[in-house]
Write a structure and sequence with these properties.
This protein is of the alpha/beta class and 503 residues long. It has 23 helices and seven strands. α6 runs parallel beside α19 and α9 packs parallel to α11. The N terminus is likely disordered.
């Protein structure tokens, strides 16, 4: 018998395993995806805990107006914020007007900005630097603070990061489409916040360094043309801003050495975390390379520009206006961390993780602070509205501090769904109809209030006798009413006055 023939299985010619491709894609995406998701989660934690700030009350008020009313408002006040107000008008008409609804655009914008910061660090340096930069940026208290703020600062942060990435893309491959995309991002940056255009000085420095390296002036010429066209398109908005300059910035104090020294802590939201990052920045500049110099310029030039303007002209020195410098500064700090960790891969990532942990611990007090119930600037409108809602009766009337911009709008927001709320008896023209942020009151308040069975009085600040903040009503309230209740809440005093029964 012949032995059975055994067949040799055919040699497989499958393509190589896709593991290296998957690993390479993960390395490319991790510096942006991981910090972005982390920031989104951090931003959503306790997003509606803090009461609306003064400025958020303005957003809530104006977003509920019609597009025509927002257009009229822009010609009297807050003209530079008109694009944001219009965007929020569209957003709230679709999504809603809860506190989370108002803050959600900023939360998403900040998460995307942190993701783009990680991507910028990866492109300029390496994946480890990008990942650490994104994580450090997400850990800072002020990224959480302005992620949970219904104002344009997080959106400005996002557009500034987009403009930086598009600039590098255009310089690397100067096609018309890329310069067009960069120019549109500059226009968007100006529409979100006009002061953010100070980053153009840093963009000029980056374009100049790249041209010096290549020996060609075509890129810097293209940048100049693109930026000039974008600025021309923004001239109407700038004109509105200049017209309203005194009204918009009259509250900003002059620039001092103390405010300069406090900038790092004011930007980061934690002085301890800020100085830790500055130490890492200093470690980087033992041997600076071109990307580090460019990111340093992106951090320093806008701040220096705002400081110079504040010294010579109107005062613009407000830390939240300079949030755009946080990302490049953190990228430089992350590069410092990476340079201090040159060893085996395991030891390198352990040291990077340790630095992130130290910054996280240093930032904990700031993170807790920005999430407090009354952490933001402004009176506790929510508590005042809750007290009124609990104790109100039919026929009640309510009056506020004269010419109040925020108290009336804040309480109106928190009582917007309460049909039995007290009547705002002194309003002659609403703020919306007056194209203002303040309602116009009648000139004869005592006559308007007289005869009401009960009067609520809400005034800014803490007062033993709240009628001293409303002198035009003080004689009436003292003669014909008695103070039945007094509540002192954060940055405000609420009192209830009732008419005594007839003898």
């Amino acid at each position: 018998m012949t032995a059975a023939r055994t067949q040799t299985p055919p040699i497989r010619t499958d393509p190589p395993a896709a593991a290296p491709q998957v690993r390479g894609r993960a390395v490319r995406l991790a510096p942006s995806i991981l910090p972005g998701v982390m920031m989104l989660v951090i931003g959503l934690i306790g997003a509606d805990r803090a009461v609306l700030s003064w400025d958020e009350v303005a957003t809530a008020d104006v977003a509920r107006r019609s597009a025509a009313q927002i257009w009229h408002l822009s010609h009297t006040v807050d003209g530079v914020f008109a694009p944001y107000y219009l965007a929020m008008h569209l957003w709230t008409s679709v999504v809603g007007t809860t506190v989370l609804d108002l803050r959600l655009p900023s939360i998403m914008a900040m998460a995307a900005a942190v993701a783009l910061a990680g991507e910028l660090g990866r492109r300029l340096l390496n994946p480890a630097t990008g990942l650490v930069a994104g994580i450090l940026l997400g850990l800072l208290p002020n990224t959480s603070r302005y992620a949970q703020e219904a104002r344009p600062y997080a959106i400005t942060f996002l557009i500034a990061m987009m403009a930086m990435l598009l600039l590098y893309a255009a310089l690397a491959n100067p096609r018309r489409s890329r310069w067009l995309a960069y120019g549109l991002s500059v226009v968007g940056l100006g529409l979100s916040h006009i002061v953010a255009l100070t980053v153009l000085g840093a963009h000029l420095a980056i374009a100049g360094l790249r041209c010096r390296e290549t020996g060609s002036r075509r890129s810097i010429a293209a940048w100049g043309i693109t930026a000039s066209v974008a600025l021309v398109l923004l001239l109407p908005l700038a004109w509105l801003g200049v017209r309203q300059l005194h009204q918009q910035l009259s509250w900003v104090p002059p620039l001092t050495a103390r405010s300069l020294y406090g900038l790092p802590g004011g930007l980061a939201g934690s002085a301890a975390a800020a100085w830790l990052l500055l130490g890492l920045v200093a470690a980087t500049f033992w041997r600076p390379d071109r990307p580090m110099i460019e990111m340093a310029a992106a951090a320093v030039v806008p701040a220096a520009t705002v400081a110079l303007v504040s010294l010579l002209g109107p005062h613009f020195w407000v830390p939240r206006y300079l949030l755009i410098v946080l990302a490049p500064a953190v990228i430089v700090a992350a590069a410092g961390v990476d340079r201090l960790s040159r060893s085996s891969a395991v030891e390198r990532y352990l040291r990077l993780a340790a630095v992130c942990a130290v910054v996280a611990v240093a930032a904990v007090p700031g993170q807790l602070s920005v999430r407090g119930r009354t952490a933001k600037n402004g009176s506790d409108f929510r508590s005042a509205a809750a007290i009124v809602h609990r104790w109100q009766q039919p026929g009640d009337e309510i009056v506020y501090t004269p010419k109040s911009r925020t108290l009336r709008a804040g309480v109106d927001y928190y009582l917007r769904h309460d049909p039995g709320r007290p009547r705002d008896v002194l309003v002659q023209h609403s703020a919306a109809s007056a194209a203002s942020l303040r309602a116009v009151e009648y000139a004869d308040p005592a006559i308007r209030v007289r005869g009401a069975p009960r009067v609520w009085l809400l005034v800014a600040g803490r007062h033993a006798d709240p009628t001293t903040a409303r002198r035009d009503l003080q004689p009436l309230l003292r003669r014909e009413y008695r103070q039945a209740q007094l509540w002192r809440i954060n940055r405000a005093t609420l009192a209830l006055f009732t008419r005594p029964p007839p003898p």
